[in-house]
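Worked Example 4.2. Consider the chain below.
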Amino acid sequence: MRLSLQVRLVLGSLVVLTITGLLSGIWLEGRLRHTMQAQHEQELNRLNDVVVQYLVAAGGLEAGMEVDALVDAVGDSIQRRVTVIDSTGTVVGDSALDGERLQRMDNHANRPEIRAARLRPGDRGISRRYSGTIRVQMLYVAQTATDDPSAPVVRVSMPLETIEDAVAGLRAAVIMAGLLAAGLCILLTLVAARVYGSRLDRIAARMRANLSSRYPEPKGGIDGLVQSMDRIGQDIESLVDTLIQERDRFLAVLETMDAAVIALDRSRTITVVNSAARVLLDLGEDPTGKPLEEVIRVPDIVELTRSDLPQTVTQVEVNLSNAGGSRIVLLRAVQQRMSGGVVMVLHDITEIKHLEAIRRDFVANVSHELRTPVSVIRANAETLLDGALDDQAAARSFTTAIHRNSERLTMLLSDLLDLARMEAGETPLNPTTVMLHHSVERAFDMLGLAAEQRGVTLHNEIPSGLQVHTDPDTFDQVLLNLIGNGIKYGQSSGGRVWVRGFGESECIRIEIIDDGPGIEQRHRDRVFERFYRVDPGRSRDMGGTGLGLAIVKHLVDLMGGTVGIEPRDGGGTIFWLTLPAG
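Applying the procedure from the previous section yields the following structure tokens:
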């Protein structure tokens, strides 16, 4: 059977009080004994000196004198037992005994205090022992009458009963104090147990209400409180483990996000920053724990976080300039209701903005490119319907214009479809070994008529053994575009187009060179854009769609190569591409 809280508190208090009382009593008893014995020794030392001086002065220590009478008188005056022992150890005088009893006393030569006094003449011998003569515990102090070791020894003694009486009184006082303290302790313990026990019961009840249902109902009282605390500790430990797992998952998700995330506390100090934010904002060391304005020197961001944000998400576009160049960032920020901190999410929309601009330009260019042939076809058709069909010469001219512009539309739509398939990754490749010289010859054969009409001479300067590893049909399409481009825009009537090839470590460099007017530096970075024309009027007159070089760029990228443009010394343009060696 388990004891109640009150009983256990009372028993515990009594045990502590008892142990404390015993230890205190033992210590006090020892201190009292030591103090009283020291006082008695000092008193006997003083009395011993007085008695020796008196006996020597009275001549009571000379041979033949009646010593016992003097000793009795001295003992009565000082209320202490006085004994005189001669050199043989015989007691010649004792204030406590006389007559026959004195004569029957044992020889005292071997008493400890007597031996000590004779070993150190003029000094004292002290001893505490039981006296067989008077049958009590005694304290003895003895010294020789002179400095001669054979001189009589004068001893003064007193019973130690006073010490035992004092110790007994102390014990009684300690016991009474202990009993009184025990009563007070029991009373205070019962009151405290009742007061704090009720509070603990209320705490235990609240704890039981918070326990999960997987635990059985705990007991009442202190045992129930302990059980409840143990089970709540288990729940807290489980909760901490869950929070740690959630934190690890949160950090893992945060680190794998493409968006930059920065969290600030109420004082606008950085508390969380992920890898994307460190890269986007070019942050070197970990900025956690630093004020935002010391780490990110972007006025728009700092000003946004300084003000109180609405509860809804605030969204702004911010321009960033750092070592990586100029970037356009979409910043979304929201203020936390409870903590007053701010969470910012930054998306790099530079590429999106660029793609939107390209899309707008593409739509505008396609609309423009389609409008011209469609307008020509419509105008010629309306003219024919208005009566030009009856004039055979005019009808043929209008029909020829309709046919020419329809072919232009066909070419334009075909190029657009090819470009869409390439961007969608729907252009299959079957790489194989391609002999460059033979591929260039095939391209020359297909473009020979166009070159002859323009008066352009084609030169194949590719070494016969040079080869690449790529898709032959795709490579032929690239060659046709680039060689055809050189024929169209190079010098006419005596112009030339060269195709050369070089081996460069693990890749092959192929160059298509013309001797035309060349392309200015400001146009070279954009010639591979869709619908970009160096000379729009001349390009349309030559039947170009404005998509040829864009298609070349996509095809070369698909083949794992690179393409570019350089000026030719003496005039003209060099289009080059590199492909993996065969």
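DSSP finds 16 helices and 17 strands in the chain. Confidence is low (pLDDT under 50) at residues 537-541. Compare this with Example 4.1 before moving on.
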